[in-house]
């Protein structure tokens, strides 16, 4: 996944079984989420490029969908709070007219 340095944020992490990307896309006006298996193919059962409203509620919907999906195979997994806060920060920066171009990687396996 390519990230435009001024208009898209992407927060990425790995779990035992998945690679997850979630972020904010300014031109498309949405929060996106995608889950790949460890071989880099879309994880069956999760939309290849899920889209949610570009709001705090959209961030919650994306987090809930990701957590529900990952928990099916990894038990009591939660999207790290630092990722959720990062998405909220991206929304705030955009609402103030700032650029959100960032790419963050997190170690999600420690959860």
Widest sheet: strand ordering = 4-3-2-1-5
Q: How many helices in DSSP terms?
A: 2
Percent strand: 25-35%
What is the oligomer described by this structure? single chain
**Mean residue pLDDT:** 85
Helix content: 25-40%
Radius of gyration, Cα only, in angstroms? 13 Å
Q: Major sheet, described briefly?
A: 5 strands, mixed
Low-confidence stretches: 1-5
Rough outline: globular
Written description of the protein model:
This protein is of the alpha+beta class. The chain has one domain. The chain is 31% helix and 29% strand. It has two helices and five strands. The chain has helices at 56-74, 81-95, and strands at residues 8-14, 18-25, 30-37, 50-53, 102-106. The protein has a five-stranded mixed β-sheet, covered by helices on one side. Strand 1 and strand 2 form a beta hairpin. Helix 1 packs antiparallel against helix 2 (81-95). The protein starts with 7 loop residues before the first strand and ends in a 5-residue tail after the last strand. The model is unreliable at 1-5 (pLDDT under 50).
